[in-house]
Design brief:
Strand order of the largest sheet: 3-4-2-1-5-6-7-12
Bound molecules: NADP nicotinamide-adenine-dinucleotide phosphate, guanosine-5'-diphosphate-alpha-D-mannose
Largest sheet: 8 strands, mixed
CATH superfamily of the largest domain: NAD(P)-binding Rossmann-like Domain
Distance between the termini: 28 Å
Helix content: 25-40%
CATH topology of the largest domain: Rossmann fold
CATH class of the largest domain: Alpha Beta
Order of helices and strands: EHEEEHEHHEHEEHEEEHEEHEHHH
Strand content: 15-25%
Shape: globular
Number of domains: 2
Number of helices: 11
Length: 352
């Protein structure tokens, strides 16, 4: 039985990746931060015990370990004990806007945290396979469409930290012959997306407006363009990258780009609401430096991995609006649910 260690297991991608790995028969070990309120809601269907003590195991074969990417001793302890075959580094201070408020902390976790993990992984098992969650933010929106050869131009403390982690991952591959890959993923969303990222903020607020709980939605820059895909498809690609003969880096995205304004329009229209009555602009959501246009050129992944995004922009909007309507007790429009049933059927992911 293969063993995988996943950092960021309580996040959007970590939760979907864990479901995928368990469906493939892996023993999965996850790193969890201690928090004063529970932070395991995205994995509580796999790990129902509310309390973790030391290393805890659920019936599904998922093990959770307390730790933090700032704590190299604990990271090393876990690696020595688990000796994983595959390591997925998904943990990060992942919010771009927040990274301007916490640049040093973001550098410590999103940057140096990767080095701590690479070093512990290499020492625990020289044959380990390592996935680094790199980001399209590293391109800074320059020279679209962006592929593996596009130069980096980081435009935030978050992106600077991810560029450092990207190069450390390559350095371990070249210097120690370690199987280490960077997945340079463009934005990917889902019903489990964090509530303060723009897509989820929009769909959640729409559901609350329909439910009569709110009236307005305040946003920042509506002109930025993103290549938005669907998280459950993207975590499958992370796994594929670690199953190849040779380690290399991949750009992953849909190959389409849409503005934040287009997302707002599509979501309001789908929910049957008039955007003009609800949306307002608030300067506090603008960033000191913005990434204007992200659009992936994912041809390398298509050719080498046979991977291609299936859920595109409008489908994604519908899936997310439906899920948030259900969460807030409103009857979903229903098209999003049908798209999920068609795309995923009875496959590993059953939908939220
Ligand atoms: P997310 O939902 O924000 O999850 C981040 C995870 O990191 C959470 O489990 C969080 O734990 C954990 N974490 C944060 N600080 C930590 C620390 N100091 N020590 C240990 N764990 C810590 O992010 P995501 O959307 O799933 O993204 C996964 C990864 O891919 C991130 O590295 C992100 O930067 C990168 N990425 C994401 C996208 C995207 O569009 N989603 C695109 C490219 C790259 P808590 O639950 O305790 O907060
Ligand atoms: N969060 C947020 N909130 N963004 C807003 C808002 C708002 O109220 N209004 C407009 N935006 C704009 C941002 O300025 C940005 O241009 C765009 O919406 C997307 O913002 P986010 O959803 O916060 O995502 P991001 O693109 O900055 O970063 C995400 O994708 C990266 C990959 O490209 C994160 O998941 C990163 O971790 C990831 O690396």
């Amino acid at each position: 039985m293969k063993k995988a260690f996943v950092t960021g297991i309580t996040g959007q991608d970590g939760s979907y990746l864990t479901e995928l790995l368990i469906s493939k028969g892996y023993e999965v070990h996850g790193l969890v931060r201690r928090s004063s309120s529970l932070n395991t809601s995205r994995i509580c269907h796999i790990f129902p015990e509310a309390e973790i003590a030391g290393t805890s195991k659920s019936e599904s074969g998922l093990f959770l370990h307390y730790g933090d990417l700032s704590d190299s001793e604990q990271i090393s302890n876990i690696m020595d004990k688990v000796k994983p075959d595959e390591v997925y580094n998904l943990a990060a201070q992942s919010h771009v806007r927040v990274s301007f408020d916490t640049p040093e902390y973001t550098g410590n976790i999103t940057g140096l945290g990767t080095t701590r993990l690479l070093e512990a992984a290499r020492r625990s098992n020289p044959g380990v396979r390592f996935y680094q969650a790199s980001s399209s933010e590293m391109f800074g929106g320059k020279k679209p469409p962006q592929n593996e050869e596009t130069p980096f131009y980081p435009r935030s403390p978050y992106a600077c930290a991810k560029v450092y982690s990207y190069w450390m991952t390559r350095n371990y591959r070249e210097g120690y012959d370690m199987y280490a890959c960077n997945g340079i993923l463009f934005n990917h969303e889902s019903p489990r997306r964090g509530e303060t990222f723009v897509t989820r903020k929009i769909t959640r607020r729409i559901a609350r407006i329909v439910a009569g709980k709110e009236k307005t939605l305040s946003l920042g820059n509506l002109d930025a363009k993103r290549d938005w895909g669907f998280s459950p498809e993207y975590v499958e690609c992370m796994w594929m990258m670690l199953q190849q003969k040779q380690a290399t880096d991949y750009v992953i995205g849909t190959g389409e780009t849409h503005s934040v304004a287009e997302f707002v329009d599509a979501a309001f229209e789908y929910a049957g609401l008039d955007r003009e009555k609800h949306v307002q602009i608030d300067q506090k959501y603008f960033r000191p430096t913005e990434v204007d246009v992200l659009i992936a050129d994912p041809r390398k992944a298509e050719k080498n991995l046979g991977w291609k995004a299936k859920v595109k922009f409008l489908d994604l909007v519908k899936i997310m609006v439906d899920a948030d309507m259900r969460e807030f007790g409103v009857e979903p429009v229903g098209e999003g649910d049908m798209i999920l049933a068609k795309r995923f059927g009875k496959k590993w992911w059953k939908g939220d």
